[in-house]
Amino acid sequence: MGVWKVFTASLQLQCDKKHITAPLGSDFLLSCRYENQLLSNKYWCRGESRRTCEVLVDSEGKTRSTRVHIVDARSRGLFVRVLDLQKGDSGVYWVGIDRPYADIMTSVRVVVTEGENTHCRWRGFNIELTGITMKPPCPVCQSADAQDHSDVT
């Protein structure tokens, strides 16, 4: 019975990445899908265990961050954007959906490298929701000299 519950929960929340490796100073965007009837608070937390992770930002604005943004676009998905990665940002994170008795959660490992920082020139659409514009990861990158960042405004 316990295995069935874990399998069902994993179908209710799925993200496009389980492991993110990115250079120091760069940004990343995580895109997740969830079952539409899950209308409660969504959050991004950090910690090795899902039971003890610290919430960094949530979709209801109870917890805020200057470098981490979360947008719940309902039918279009859930988006987590982390800006200006620092070496100390490496670790295990969780995307979670509040639910009575047991939150629905999925883990993401983030590794920040000290390699050459690249910035992307965005060519495509913006995701504009509730006053926040997010630009998904871009296919064309250039050296750090160009300084053409994708922004969350």
Care to describe what's here?
This is Immunoglobulin domain-containing protein. Its main location: membrane. Keywords: Membrane, Transmembrane. By secondary structure, this protein is mainly β. It has a domain at 13-115: Immunoglobulins (Immunoglobulin-like, Sandwich), CATH 2.60.40. The chain has one helix and 13 strands, in the order H-E-E-E-E-E-E-E-E-E-E-E-E-E. It has one helix at 2-12; strands at 13-15, 19-23, 28-34, 42-46, 54-58, 68-72, 78-82, 91-97, 104-113, 118-120, 127-129, 132-134, 141-143. The strands form four sheets. It has a five-stranded mixed beta sheet with strand order 2-9-8-4-5. It has a four-stranded antiparallel beta sheet with strand order 1-3-7-6. Strand 6 (68-72) and strand 7 (78-82) form a beta hairpin. The protein starts with a helix and ends in a 10-residue tail after the last strand. Mean pLDDT is 78; it is low at 1-9, 121-125 and 138-153.
What's the multimeric state? single chain
Classify the fold: give the CATH topology of one domain: Immunoglobulin-like
Order of helices and strands: HEEEEEEEEEEEEE
User: Going by CATH, what is the homologous superfamily of one domain?
Assistant: Immunoglobulins
Strand content bin: 35-45%
Mean of residue pLDDT? 78
Q: Number of helical runs? A: 1
Poorly predicted segments: 1-9, 121-125, 138-153
Strand order of the largest sheet: 2-9-8-4-5
Overall 3D form: globular
For the largest beta-sheet, the strand count, sense and barrel status come to: 5 strands, mixed
Distance between the termini: 45 Å
Number of strands: 13
SS-based structural class? mainly beta
What is the helix content? under 10%
CATH architecture of one domain, by name, is: Sandwich
| CATH domain class of one domain | Mainly Beta
- Radius of gyration over all CA atoms, rounded: 16 Å
